[in-house]
Amino acid sequence: MPADILFSSDLISSDVQAALPKGHTIRPLSSEDYEKGFLDVLTVLTTVGDISKAQFLERFYYLKAHSHEYFTLVIVSPEDRIIGAGTIFVERKFIHNNGLVGHIEDIAVDKNQQGKKLGLRIIQALKYIGAKTGCYKVILDCSEEDSDLNFMLSFTRKECEMVWYIPDDTLKAKL
């Protein structure tokens, strides 16, 4: 049975694909990417947890059912391993004439693949998706140490993001 992909590959920028190192591809997340190291790549960002294949697929198919809102893409090496990933999700607003805002999150590149501009290519591809889906702006959340890179990507430092982490001992509801 062929793998499912999260969203239409028509939203992948051919310019970004052409700019990747030879043999690398950028594509939507696939239902088969659990075995190809998708979650391993995310560990460069934060704790991922012990996610089973069934849990991965449950989340994958939830995102696929909302493929007009969630766009996770991956960069695949010539060896068919996931070496980079990123997500843009589209928020529906009342302001700006019921406008759409893209939020770029979870840009991750395998530690052994950093320095090859793969993170840059992921962000470019996600910006393209934001534009193609009709967003009036795209917001990129990143760490302070990564913020200098983002100026080069035509992002402007604006506003301040604050975070409240819910304590682990608090009863957390799940949707």
From TrEMBL:
Which top EC class is given?
Answer: transferase
Q: Kindly indicate whether the keyword rRNA-binding belongs to this entry.
A: no
Q: Which GO terms describe its molecular function?
A: glucosamine 6-phosphate N-acetyltransferase activity
Where found?
Endomembrane system; Endoplasmic reticulum membrane
Domain N-acetyltransferase: start-end pairs: 24-175
Alphabetically sorted, this entry's keywords are: Acyltransferase, Endoplasmic reticulum, Membrane, Transferase
Reaction(s) catalysed by this chain, per the record, are:
D-glucosamine 6-phosphate + acetyl-CoA = N-acetyl-D-glucosamine 6-phosphate + CoA + H(+)
Question: Does the record carry Phosphoprotein as a key word?
Answer: no
- EC number(s): the record gives 2.3.1.4
| Top-level taxon in the UniProt lineage | Eukaryota
Lipid bilayer topology: Peripheral membrane protein
Which coarse location class describes where this protein primarily resides? Answer: membrane
Which biological processes are named by the entry's GO terms?
Answer: UDP-N-acetylglucosamine biosynthetic process
Q: Which GO terms describe its cellular component?
A: endoplasmic reticulum membrane
> Record's family?
Belongs to the acetyltransferase family. GNA1 subfamily.
Q: How does it assemble?
A: Homodimer.
Task: Enumerate the PANTHER family for this protein.
Answer: GLUCOSAMINE 6-PHOSPHATE N-ACETYLTRANSFERASE
| Protein name according to UniProt | Glucosamine 6-phosphate N-acetyltransferase
Q: What organism does the record attribute this protein to?
A: Dentiscutata erythropus
